[in-house]
Amino acid sequence: MWKRLLKGMKAALVVSLAVTVLAGCGGQSVSSTYPLESVVDKGGETSRVYRAENKTVPVVAKELADQKTPKEISKEDNDHMFLVYSDEWYHLQKDPKKPEDTLIEVDNQKFVQQNYSSSFLQGYITATVINGLFDLAKSYAGNYRGYGSRDTYKPTVVYHTPTKQEKKAAPPITTSGSGSIIKRSSSADTSSKSSSGSLFKKSDSSSSSGKIIRNSSDSSYSSSSSSKSGSSIFSRPKSNSPPKTSKGFGSLKRRR
Predict the structure, then answer these.
(1) Is residue 115 part of a domain?
(2) Which among 20, 38, 91 has a CA at the least distance from the CA of 60?
(3) Structural domain count of the chain
(4) Where are the alpha helices (DSSP H) in 98-180?
(5) Which residues form the signal peptide (predicted)?
(6) Is residue 74 part of a domain?
């Protein structure tokens, strides 16, 4: 009776601890992937637009900044915010057609340089960062102000609905880490089709096996092989020592 009760209490304690741990992790984790809505990938310019449903711009900005610390983040704003990284710009914007959602536009530097209005960016990003991106000696005709206003301020390239292949290829917005991802090729063949073996399967060496037998009586070596009965690489090497001489006869005899 007591043993059953004790086992039941232990089981309940384990379940309780597991629920607590999972609840704590769930409270601290942030959704690392958002639905991909639109794509541009042309002439080295890339832009991917994700949708964060029922989340405001400041909330999404905080989530993304907690996942991956930006080099610069614009001041809190309900309509537009920027997170600047070394190779990408995150432009968070309230969707004009669905104000309860936030559009997350992830642009590479070339897209920002070729499409955005520098005067528009000056309201959110420091002049140092903008001057580092735009060559002041060149003139840029871009008047783009984000995916939400693409019908009014058109980019130089055209967005399109992502295909299934593009959804697979486009990297999601995830937390930064130190690990790496290796994608297995769909055409990879893990079976061995030849006797020479493969990277994951040891080749079959049974066709040529041998052994070394040492004769203890005269310390000589002989080789026995199932595939070859001739001399072996393990045969005793010829001696390079001076030849023997028979005392008194003066003749030379070479050691066998």
Answers:
(1) yes
(2) 91
(3) 1
(4) 109-115, 118-121, 127-133, 164-169
(5) 1-23
(6) yes
Residue 160, CA distances (Å) to 22, 114, 171, 189, 249 in order:
39, 18, 17, 35, 104
Domain contains 73? yes
Q: Which two tokens stand for residue 113?
A: 């340089």
8 A C-beta contact, residue 105 and residue 90: yes
Q: What is the pLDDT of residues 75-116, one digit of tens each?
A: 999 999 999 999 899 999 999 999 999 999 999 999 999 999
54 pLDDT higher than 60: yes
Instruction: Please give the structure tokens belonging to residue 181.
Output: 């991802």
Cα–Cα distance for residue pair 193/206, rounded to 1 Å:
17
pLDDT tens across 204-242, in order? Answer: 544 445 555 555 444 444 444 444 444 455 555 555 656
Owning domain of residue 83: 36-165
- C-beta separation of 98 from 65 below 8 A: no
Residue 23 falls inside a structural domain: no
Q: What is the DSSP track for 69-109?
A: --SEEPPP-SSEEEEE-SSEEEEEEE-TTSTTSEEEEEEEH
**Tokens found for residue 121:** 């960016």
Name residues whose C-beta falls within 8 Å of residue 139's C-beta, 6 or more positions apart in sequence.
none
